[in-house]
Amino acid sequence: xxxxxDGLPRVGAVVLDTTRNVVGRVTGAGGAHLRLRPLCxxxxxxxxxxxxxPLTGAELLSALVAEANARSRRNSGNGPPYGPNPTESGxxxxx
Length: 95
Fold this sequence. Notes:
It is globular and about 40 Å long. 19% of the residues lie in helices and 26% in strands. 9% of the residues are buried. It is built from one helix and five strands.
């Protein structure tokens, strides 16, 4: 999970921010902090590497399943969110 030599989690690693008790994905480093983004999307934040906890295999699996479920819920619509698109061709209303 860490880059060689410096002991920091690599970009893309999923870790727990112990100060917020939130799981996030490492997106980069800046100065003395790492940048994390929530798995299900949202605003990134910075955290000190000492405040990160590596996830166990079970914790990682649970976090990734939660991410996939959230993505599925966002993309599960069966069409446009506000009804059919009037510019699409197709059968018109029944007389």
